[in-house]
Amino acid sequence: TEISCHAKGVNVLYPQAKTIIDIGGQDSKVISVNESGNVKNFVMNDKCAAGTGKFLEVIARAMEIEIDEMPDYAQRSEVFLEVSSVCTVFAESEVISLFSQGYDKADIIAAIYRSIARRVRGLANQIGVVPPVVMTGGGAKNKGLVNAFQEALGLPITVPDDPQIIGALGAAHLALQKNCSCTE
Q1: Within a 13 Å sphere around the CA of 81, how many CA atoms are in the beta-carbon half?
Q2: Residue 183: its pLDDT value, please?
């Protein structure tokens, strides 16, 4: 499964990892793993795009900026705002409303990051977060999002160099284990 592939991929690179946060394009997952990298438990947000890469794309488009620019904006935030909607459509409307009220893009983007981190922290609390924590998926390439997760969890988070391919790495290792007697 996708969950097993992410667990194995992280285990190959970070055998000490106990919790994986995966922020993909269409879903977000929190996976608890044992010492062998086997899945102990997981929770997944797959009913709504809020808290996913697609959500960040929608917000970037609404803010008329590139998704790569979002972390730089968030670093300049000076006003604490809340985005409370947990639905992509409603959150986009809330963002547009905040922008039309004159709030700065930096403050709105920082609020979006906190909103996503809060949402995924709720998932994580269902299974418990045990450090070390590794973040995977395309969302892990967004430094502003990673920082928001670290702040929300109060823990450091390790991000692989290519976080978006960790599931594929795990799938390759699982296939290798299944189809040959080699140990490397």
Answers
A1: 25
A2: 56
Q: How far apart are CA 163 and CA 81, in angstroms?
A: 29
Hey, what's the torsion of the CAs at 147, 97, 45, 17, to 10 degrees? 0
Residue 101: DSSP 8-state: T
The three state secondary structure string of 23-76 is ECCCCEEEEEECCCCCEEEEEEECCCCCCCHHHHHHHHHHHCCCHHHHHHHHHC
Structure token digits, residue 125: 């609390």
In this structure, what token pair is assigned to residue 117? 């981190």
Residues 6+ apart with CB under 8 A from 32: 18, 19, 39, 40, 41, 42, 127, 128, 130
| C-alpha count within 13 angstroms, C-beta hemisphere, residue 27 | 12
> pLDDT tens digits for 109-163?
999 899 889 888 988 999 999 999 999 999 999 999 999 999 999 999 999 999 9
pLDDT digits (tens, 9 = 90+) for 3-18: 999 999 999 999 999 9
The token pair at 126 is 């269902």
**Residues in Cβ contact with 133 at an 8 Å cutoff, skipping those fewer than 6 apart:** 17, 18, 19, 20, 21, 153, 155, 156, 157, 158
